[in-house]
Amino acid sequence: MLVARRGRIYASDMATGGAIILMHDGSLAVLTAPMPHAALSSALEVVRADAPWLVPADDARAHAGLCEVLDVGRDERAIIHALPADVLHRTRADREADVRWVMSPDAIDWSHVDADLRHELAAAFAFSPVAAAFDDGQAVSFCYAAFQTETLWDVSIDTIPRARGRGHARQVAAFLVAHMRDRGRRPVWGAVESNAASLALARTLGFVPVDALRVVTPRPPALRR
Q1: What DSSP state is assigned to residue 78?
Q2: C-alpha angle with apex 180: 103 to 21, nearest 5 degrees?
Q3: 198 plus 91 within the same structural domain
Q4: Angle 138-118-137 (CA atoms, 0-180°, nearest 5)?
Q5: pTM to 2 decimals?
């Protein structure tokens, strides 16, 4: 978030070494270590009401402190995966698959894609190359880098419902993994434990678990006490 200049340090605490990092658009928050309740409560006033918070999975104090000030809707463990060097080296785009770059939001027909995914992908063009797998001329699966550092990139992948389970996600992910590898960046794959499909796809592509986070999401406003 900071390397890409898409976020800022909202607050920090010298005593704990903790910090609160927020996306500029308020869509994501990160708590790196325990922070005072006052700082957490203040941050909740400036992030979106539905913004998820990422917390180190092994920091019980930070997690408990956040849950004390947040009206928690979901609290899940996310498994962080990396691609071993030998697998990364072997990854190639499938030459038989119809996978291509989407050069701009105006380059393809989006009428079959739901509004939320269209909005997500329209924003992605500002910070990442976007690749798509096509089926019968329609773009059905999309892959881009949600975040990038000097050496890493975070895999984001979406497939429209009618095209799931047919290999399109695997094809478009391999395409972008190979492209980014040739530019010196290794992929990172994160998925909450309840997302069995994403975890299965990560395994299919050769990713292995290396770390974990907790993803704490507020209760939707309409359901709050």
Answers
A1: E
A2: 90
A3: yes
A4: 5
A5: 0.90
The DSSP bridge pattern shows strands 152-159 and 186-192 to be parallel
Query: Per residue of the chain (225 residues), what is the pLDDT tens digit?
Result: 999 899 999 999 988 889 999 999 999 999 999 999 999 999 999 999 999 999 999 999 999 999 999 999 999 999 999 999 999 999 999 888 999 999 998 999 999 999 999 999 999 999 999 999 999 999 999 999 999 999 999 999 999 999 999 999 999 999 999 999 999 999 999 999 999 999 999 999 999 999 999 999 999 876 655
* Two structure tokens written together for 12: 């920090």
Residue 109 counted as domain residue: yes
The range of the structural domain enclosing residue 50 comes to 7-70
How far, in whole angstroms, is CA 220 from its chain's centroid? 20
Same domain? 30 vs 88: no
Residue 136 backbone phi and psi in degrees, to 5: 55, 40
**Count of structural domains, the chain:** 2
Q: Are residues 32 and 107 in the same domain?
A: no
Would you tell me how many other CB atoms lie within 10 Å of the CB of residue 81?
21
Calpha distance 177→85 (Å, rounded): 12
Which residue from 168, 167, 182, 177 is spatially nearest to 132, judged by alpha carbons? 168
Q: Cα(178)–Cα(89) distance, rounded to whole angstroms?
A: 8
Helix/strand/coil for 144 = strand
